[in-house]
Amino acid sequence: MSTLLYALGRWSYRHPWRVLVAWLLLLGIAGGSAALFMKGTDNAFSIPGTEAQAGIEQLSRSFPQASGTSAQMVVVAADGHKVTDESYSSAIEHTVSSIENLDGVLAVTDPFDKMVTGLVSDDGSAAIVRLQFDGQATAVSPETKTALKDFGAELQQSLPEGSQVAVGGDLFSQSLPKISIIEAVGVMIALFVLIVTFRSFRMAWFPLASAIIGVALAVSLIFVATAFASISSTTPLLAIMLGLAVGIDYALFIAARHQDQVRAGVGPEESAARATGTAGSAVVFAGVTVLIALIGLSFANIPFLTTMGIAASVAVAIAVLVAITLTPAFLGFVKGQVVGWKRRSRSSRSSSGLARPEPTNDAATEESVPARRSAPAKAKRGFADRWVTGVTRHPVVTTVAVIVGLGVLAIPAASLRLALPNAGMQPTSSEARQAYDLTSEHFGPGFNGPLIMTGTIVTSNDPLKLMKDLATEIEKIPGVKTVALATPNQTADTGIIQIVPETAPDDPATADLVRELRAQHDRLLDKYGVDLKVTGFTAVAIDISDRLGGALLPFGVFVVGLSLILLTIVFRSIWVPIKAALGYLLSVAAAFGVVAAVFDWGWLAGPLNVDKIGPVISFMPIILMGVLFGLAMDYEVFLVSRMREDFVHARARAGGADRALAVNAVRSGFTASARVVTAAAVIMFAVFAAFVPEGDASLKPIALGLAVGIVIDAFVVRMTLVPAVMALLGEKAWWMPRWLDRALPHFDIEGEAVERELALHDWPEPDTRAAVVAEDLVLAEGDIELYSAASVRVEPGDSLIVTSADPRAARALLLTVAGRVAPTGGRLRVAGHLLPERAAWVRSHVGVALLDGADDPVAELRRAVRGGAPIVVVDGADALTSTAVRDRAAAVLRDAGSPTVLVSATDPDLARALLAEARRSGTAVLDLSASALPSEVLS
Prior knowledge:
Structural class: alpha/beta
Strand content: 5-15%
CATH class of the largest domain: Mainly Alpha
Distance between the termini: 42 Å
CATH topology of the largest domain: Multidrug efflux transporter AcrB transmembrane fold
CATH superfamily of the largest domain: Multidrug efflux transporter AcrB transmembrane domain
CATH architecture of the largest domain: Up-down Bundle
């Protein structure tokens, strides 16, 4: 992958206008499509397979008047007045008759109707007008909502001064999130951090511009998707938040690597290609981990959450693609002007501001002025160097302090409560929130979240008495304040019971009441013969919260298990992945603890503009776990991969490893990567934190959790706990069983393939024209070597016969040359392309004919040469036993032009006969049975 990214980076650098115009064109198409086809977001939460959802579906079929969404108008009389006064009751009745004509309204309940009870408060200070709509909240038109609010405003004006009217209910329980100026502050902070990091205004704009283009494209595609999918209003904002954060960071990693290389003297074009191949490989790996975690949200089996995860993963995928293409393109615009201003050296100027003279090595001067000789000044150590030295010098104290500290910070997480958003979570300036609070104050909190029980009563001879008896039974259950309604439908085949709980819809006691009502199912079925289901908006919200709570453990096992597997593959270590996974769990627990302390305990609720203390949105934990997992892996990879690189190089130089060498590698690797990781973490924190003060009530706890989680994971876990634990483990940190090392695949996330290509650029000679060059090639399976020390050179148009007592060895060598099998040692270049790095190109340009066991060997050979492959490998020439078959095969090779042919056979004479008949010269023989001795060129 790194070699492909290397080529992509070079191409993007050379053609910056093409890349930029291509992305802008895609953005224009997506934006135009969104403007034409988008249908708006949908906040209707549903959860198939639950009792609440089944109840709603049953009501929609048999009792549609009760299955749709509802709203309510709360009227509160002025002090000293009652709503039963003529000035109030007449105005309310007039409003009720006006509302009945609204489009989509099925029924309006007059609180003064003699058939209705409970809609006028006990003290007469307030009344509720209930409205029932056709369909769910998303089916009600914006015009109807606006008209309903207008009726409320007109009623307010007609009532005596001091009275209050507020419109709310389920229809208005969801607020539409919006972008405020505060979010722009996060972007400006990110720009400032980029300027400081790059020490260049020009370079600072590149990550920001690429991230904005990627986010705009992702959001446009999300709105296009609303034309054929149900997408919640929180989804675009989540995509913006994630897309900005990872988009800026991914471009930062590539641009920072490029700047360091240019400062070191690498040419700008070569540097852009290398940065894309090396840092870009890590970016792709990091992006894939985030994608997997987001797609893993489908574990909860909740459609809207699955859609949210997919939409957010699209934003991350686009951020990766933009980073590896648009970033090198931006670098191509400025060429070599990326170094930035020089860091001011404190030792280069005197206190008076005059430059100090540079030290001289002139021996004569030193001898003539011996009194002025002094020891050279020590280079000033950076903060990162001093920090990691202190951490690794006291690893036990550091480890214990971090674990205990994060454990204490996680304590509030035990009290974290979850619920779907309702009007009570909206700002106090919201009319829906005012209606919610007025209802709670005058009628009790349960009136904001009534429950519905419904069932088929077609077998009853007296449906009215049956519903009355059921209401009496249910009113006895603890937690039920009153049964507001118990009635059959017009056809008397379905009954509905509306229950008002004593507690608010997001109170845990209401969830307990739902479970208790369901626990009464069998008893009521036996006694009354009615199969009752508990449903309604509140019950659906509780079911979703329960489903999400149940999904946390399997999702946690998924992401932790995934981190163990991925990091084991990347770092070839057992202890590093375990340490990383445990660190991730500490970060998540601490982030949960901070969110609970703010939203449940009320700490810093005022400064953070938290309007209501209470439960947080149900899908906050699973989204926080998924996103933080991907970001934590980012920091782990960028920090620890540099430590591993330094350790491997130091071990090779020293011929072995000990604890001191391993600790030095931890320190040097940390110091080399701390600047970029620090900048990336600060940027992510700024972007996430900007969504907290004025953010949507649903997004606010997610943004706070991510902001805190990023700070804790980057600075406390990765940059403090990780080096301490690595110092404790010493050289054992990089231990891995040999059998596991052989079994696991290799991921090149640090661009080792690019580095190898650069190192072997002139091997075997600059601009070689050889078709195949192999030097000390080895292929082993476990402890068994299929072949070893295979060295050969074949020029274009020549041939090679590979022979061995074991046909598997010859076939393995040919498949290695064809790019189908990766060698385990040695060097190999095919048609100018180094293997295994360029195996994809070789596979598409080298034909393979496996004659042994083929039904028609000639047809197999014909298929291999089809398309004009410049190199053809033919395994098992022994299958061409008859002269006639061999002649036909030779004719196929002749007709193919002049490809380079590599043939394997246990009997080399058969292969010679085939090649002679094909009129080929310059044939070499490689005998793998003789320890792959140098090839013999035959005349």
